[in-house]
Amino acid sequence: MEQIPDPTTPEGFPTIVPAPDDGVPEGRGGSQTRPYDQTDAQPQDAENRGIVRAAAVLAVGNVASRVLGLAREMVKANLFGTTPLLAAFQAAAYVPTGLFDLIIGGMVNSSLVPVFSDYAERERRDELWRVLSMVLSLATLVLLAVVAIVELFAPQVAWLVGALNFTEPELSAVSISLIRMTTPAVLFLGIASILTGALYALKRFTIPAFIGAAFNGAIVVAALITREVTGLVWGLLLGSVLQVVLQLPALRDARLRPTLNFRHPALRRIIRLYIPILAGLVVNQIAIMLSYNLAIRTGDQSLNYMNYATTLYQFPLGLVVTALSIATLPTLSRQAADLSAFRATLSDGLRLVLALILPATAGLFALAPAIIGLLFQHGAFTAADTATTALVLRVYLAGMPFAAADQMLVFASYARKDTWRPALVGFISIVVYSAVALLLLRSLGLLSLMVADAVKHVVHTALMIVVVRRQIGGVSGGPVARSAAKSLLAALLTGLAAYGAAWAVGSVTAGTGTLAWLPAVLAGGAAGVLAYTAAVFALDIRETRALPRLLRR
0.70 cut: is pTM over it? Predict the structure, then answer.
């Protein structure tokens, strides 16, 4: 299945524009400017520094959000393990996050930031506030209507997400109640994302970069205080409200008022830009609902195993893809008309993403039980839960390299201003996913969803290669294939070294308790890093060797 996108961040990645001012006037603690020396180099250098600062802020915020997201899962594991009651919450919590992703989440980068940016200059700020007011007013009305519909038809919504498939009838009743409690969060999540889009357009990145961390932190604190599943609900609601409240100071100069004008060209452009993205999101949400339905049918605890494994699966994938999107997507957009340069940049990006994600996949596969044991096996999370979650994660990992490369291909298509064909490819891959999952469900149970997910990523990647080749006439497949072969060999050595070291240390330091896993994780991780470093030089994997220089640039 697809990981539920983090409701604290917009779908995809924010548009990076120069010189974030964060609303701080110059001369009062903001960035100080040097006198202009009548050369062309300094403005370009200032622009580059602004982009680097913005990228650094967003990267740090992304890491903070993911670390606290991991802490959130650790707290859930400690307090609730894999109990069916937690699965009931997982099904209920999907409703506001899924609705958010569908209605607002994918709109930020595809529509809001481009349109808001047209009015971001100081002389056009009054019009920006007018457009922002219209978007907020319309979104509030739509989201309030959605909340009312879900509250009224909560049992039917529970059926859609599979919450009526629990073997214990009381769990279905609990899910319906939790759906009604969590759904109002979609209103605040939606408003927060619209404010984020405005702040990105205004080059104010710092506060919106960290609202994801605040969201996850609120859930952690609420769960620890109440030590009940309802605490997760209150944390989710509090976190969604915090996203709005924390961003208001950065918009203190905004003049907002309720207003609607459906004929305004900005509103029409936002809707026009969002339609292709919406098509893909609808398909994605259908796939997630199908995954939830099928997972719950395989057991009341299955949704928990899938969620814990997906969290670890997404951690390296998200960090790698985020870094590469910041480094590569703006360049691809500028080179859209220069096919030769475009192909070269895309080829470099694909080689680098494979050089990074393949060893991460091998290391995570080798150390899966030890990592899960270290992070989750405490409190209510048992050794049996560790074994099952590790198995689920290992099957998931078969699709990770394809998912990473596929993301680069999708970015390339977006850089060419083609959003319809990736949406069509997404629809085809979801059909394949559904067919494989249903075909294997009886024989493999929960693991059929992980196998189907891997097949889906393979199909999606293959189709996107065809799409991109038709757009640009090729992807420099020879160099990519040779680099991928070297990276795969290095990854295999990494995995073997990590597994061997973890097994050797684990057999000597076998014990009980969370920290009993720590020596195996440290030894396996160190051995894997050393093995991969040696392989990089022995096989001359230039992409990884050039990474420090790329980061400095």
Answer: yes
